[in-house]
Amino acid sequence: MNNKGVTQSFTILLVDDREENLISLEDMLEMPGRVFLKANSGNDALRLIMKNPDIGLIMLDVQMPDMDGFEVAKILKSNAKTKDISIIFVTAINKEEQYVLKGFEEGAVDYLQKPLDIRITRAKVNVFEHLYFYQRRLRQSLITIEAVNKQMERFLYTVSHDLKSPLAGIAMIVSALEYELDTVSSEELAVKMQLMGKASLHLTQMVDSILDYSKKSFEQQTKELVNVEELVKDTVRLLFPPTHIEIRVQDNLPSLVTRKLKLQQVFQNLISNAIKFNNRREGLIEIGYTDAGAQYRFFVKDNGPGIKDNDEDRIFGLFKTGQAVAQGETSTGIGLNLLKVIVEEQGGRIWAESEEDKGSTFFFDWAK
Predict the structure, then answer these.
(1) Which of 36, 40, 34, 51 is nearest to 15 (CA)?
(2) pLDDT category, 328, cuts 50, 70, 90?
(3) Beta strand pairing status for 10-15 and 295-302?
(4) Most exposed: 89, 105, 297, 307, by fewest CB within 10 Å?
(5) 53: which residues sit within 8 A by CB, 6+ positions away?
């Protein structure tokens, strides 16, 4: 039998109280990639099934002492872990319709009459082997689809979070102009209109990147030359940090070819958190990098409240939050977990170093 692309073995359990029947069945069905387990009674069969969760087919003799094939099938079908294993009853007795129906009621999917026809027996087992691997691929596809759905949920959360900052900045400027329009100087108005223009352009570029991301697989997503210093400074401006927080960006941040939206999301979230959770009268945030060989090691450092020792690792878990929460803010604990997913997707890692009441530094590695 040819199962292209399938490297796993197909395990068949043979159950018969006569040893010569087991040997004959194995000899008849033996093929590369098949593994055979043998049991001489119903009880032995049940023990083997519990120890071997990968059994794909059971060839089950109906007439056995102590526990017949019907009883074995009934027990298997009542157990959630074994109810989907295919069972072929092998019998030398009554072929009447009522007797056959009893077998199907107890969970059989097919019947073979002794003495066995070699061609029919092989053909039926081949069909069940094909079905087994098809069902296995189908289950794997469902797992993949579920993972993609979860990734999309995370993506939508990140998008809504990232779009919020420039939108909030635009709303803040518009609100201020409503009250200052009669008194604001032409120079101040020009500055604010310029900020609004940059924020609007930034939003347009983000939406374009999001559309590109949503249409393409990870491998197909566009890579481009990114000036990280320019990206960070634009991000800082569009976060509209309060006047009591100083943000210092290291000179000569590198340029690299990468997925710009991803890198922007990481910086925007880390800088936004550093602003939001800073409780100092004079806040300071520093952004820089070091060369780590095949990767750049970026950091966002703040002088905020810091993180407790036992929180440094757990904050990157889904729905895990640290102790510091900005006044009036709520934290779902999703954000840092999303950053971890994004960074690891790029082949890097993210971690925090912190001292309570003295500030935190978030590091992440990004491929050159």
Answers:
(1) 40
(2) very low
(3) unpaired
(4) 105
(5) 81
Residue pair 31/12 in contact (Cβ under 8 Å)? The answer is: no
237-243: Cβ within 8 A, 24+ apart: 237/195, 237/198, 238/165, 238/166, 238/169, 238/198, 238/199, 238/202, 239/165, 239/169, 239/268, 239/271, 239/272, 239/275, 240/165, 240/168, 240/169, 240/172, 241/275, 241/285, 242/275, 242/283
Ordered domains of the chain (ranges, CATH): 10-116 (3.40.50.2300), 223-368 (3.30.565.10)
Q: Length of the chain, please?
A: 368
Alpha carbon distances (Å) from 139 to 9, 142, 185, 349: 17, 5, 66, 30
pLDDT interval class at 111 (50, 70, 90): confident
Q: Record the tokens describing residue 314, joined without a space.
A: 């757990």
Q: Is the per-residue pLDDT at 334 higher than 80? A: no
| CA pair distance 42, 89, nearest whole angstrom | 13
The CA distance from 339 to 349, in Å, is 9
**230, 267, 220: which is closest to 252 by C-alpha?**
230
pTM for this entry: 0.48
Other Cβ atoms closer than 10 A to 48:
16
- Give me the chain's average pLDDT, please: 81
